[in-house]
Amino acid sequence: MGTWIAEYRTVASSLAAAIAGSLAWSGHIAALPLSFGFLILALLQADRWATSSVALAYYASSTWPLVPGAKSFFGAHFSLLGGTVLWVGGSVLLAMPWALFHFRRWPARFLSVPLALVATSVPPLGLIGWASPLTSAGILFPGTRWAGILGILFLPALIVRFPRWGTLVTGLLIACTNWVYPGDPAPPTSWEAVDTKFGRSELELADPFREFQHAQWIEQRALNSRAKVIVFPETIVPRWNDGTEAFWGPTLANLAVQGKTIIFGTTVPVVASAKRLNSIMVRGANVPASFFQRIPPPISMWKPFSRSGFPLRLTGQGSIPVAGERPAVLICYELLLTWPVLSASWEHPTILVGVANDYWASQTRIPAVQRAALDAWARLFSLPGLLAVNT
Q1: Rounded mean pLDDT of 113-122?
Q2: How many CB atoms are located within 10 Å of the residue 26 CB?
Q3: Is 319 exposed, middle or buried (0-12, 13-18, 19+ CB in 10 A)?
Q4: Taking Cα atoms as reference points, which of 214, 21, 227 lies closest to residue 136?
């Protein structure tokens, strides 16, 4: 009888975690705090098997849009089976630390959530650290910066160990921080993020005429903008080289005369290599600068055992000076992770800028999840947020 009850509790907890994960990562920012409930559910489990079951349910329900999105991202040769393998494999890997750090006794159990969340946020697992409950800190404890992260790490155990007082303390902290939070900072009036609907990446299409049309559109959009800094999406200019620099020369000169700066996504070659860097270019009135993606999507872009692809740059800079501001930059996939934004926060950014090329995910909730995550991180660190997306 006792075994049956324990199994029933595990199934019920796993179902609750699946619901929490699916709703929390539905793309609605107000739903993100439901991921905090998963942490409590994980701590309530009696053994490693039950804990891993709850964690697996949470991550699998949170990340299932990877299955339909993967086929579009990888191309026609990639099957739904391949997407399913990536989804299940990633969910299993992220669930493993929850089983590993399940401690039966107190006070050791206070370390279960911190250790598991750190393990799933910091590389190597942090390279696929999707759906981190740490993101909910920006909604539960806005403006508290690293104190909000500590709240997510330790308050769940306080609630489980001392239900009445833990719930009261947590509720008061949430209410107080939201009460005193002055509101989301507005982006500088001289900054503008521009969404585009160019569709599939030119990196795959290799259509010079279409690329020329898009370049003309970007040029006119920037020249006609009233903003001084205009942010365009990821890889909106497919490749950057000496020829591209020459083609864009007159436009960039005109922008400089108008005192305007454009920030746009492109790729640049790695010297003496078949690899490329997914980058952000800053051109125009600003001193020319480049920013490189630190964590490209594994397998599709970052290919550890291949001579091609996009290299991993974990020690790269997380921010870049632009027009008197210091934006922390998150490029597409990095919007779904924890490590890039937390590591960039140490560089004292003044604005959070995201760029993405989501043509492959336009029929999924992934673009909405990216926007919700960026807004949540911006709230946590009291930063203005801008996001430019191509669909």
Answers
A1: 98
A2: 17
A3: buried
A4: 21
